[in-house]
């Protein structure tokens, strides 16, 4: 009987029945755009010049990755050799370590083979459709040490395009700058250079493993 009387009492006293709060509106977050591998507006010549200067300072080499953002093979190559992988294969870890310690990486956009072709010719690099990305290695003086099409990194010739990180790691290791051996002359030269410029010397100890 009490259940029948309560609603009437509430209405007569002017009190509205309790209402449930509306469900919260879900927040729509904008989708993050996928990061492009190649900077389509960059001055590639200036990028290479900067990389060569850094390579000369560190006595290492420059790796040029020629490719295009809308080339499917370039994306697959990036994912296989440079992109995140969980769990990370040992070959991918070697690639990352070698690139960090032994190379200055420059990615050059070639569009539909209609961009930066003069720059590629400067380094005696011939780019072809279906063979991107193309890798070129320069020594610290800008001389071409090695170059290789991504076709040579294919996991299985003739099959669907996929890339073998082991082949990429071997290519980078083979063509990195030779070890200076005795580091004392380099250290003494750096000390003298720092004295003349009134600067400090940053010493970085590393190992090739």
Write up this protein.
By secondary structure, the chain is an alpha+beta fold. The protein has a domain at 44-174: 3-Layer(aba) Sandwich (Glutaredoxin), CATH 3.40.30. Helix content is 38%, strand content 12%. The longest helix has 15 residues, at 44-58. It starts with a helix and ends in a 12-residue tail after the last helix. 22% of the residues are buried. The model is unreliable at 5-13 (pLDDT under 50).
Brief write-up:
By secondary structure, this protein is α+β, with helices and mostly antiparallel strands. The protein has seven helices and four strands; from the N terminus they run H-H-E-H-H-E-H-E-E-H-H. It has a domain at 44-174: Glutaredoxin, CATH 3.40.30.
List strands and helices in order, with pairings:
Elements: H1 2-12, H2 44-58, E1 61-67, H3 72-82, H4 90-102, E2 103-109, H5 117-122, E3 134-138, E4 144-149, H6 165-174, H7 184-197
Keywords:
alpha+beta; Glutaredoxin; single chain; four-stranded mixed sheet
Radius of gyration: 29 Å
- Sheet with the most strands? 4 strands, mixed
What share of residues is helical? 25-40%
* CATH level 4 superfamily of one domain: Glutaredoxin
* Mean pLDDT over the residues: 84
CATH level 3 topology of one domain: Glutaredoxin
The number of strands is 4
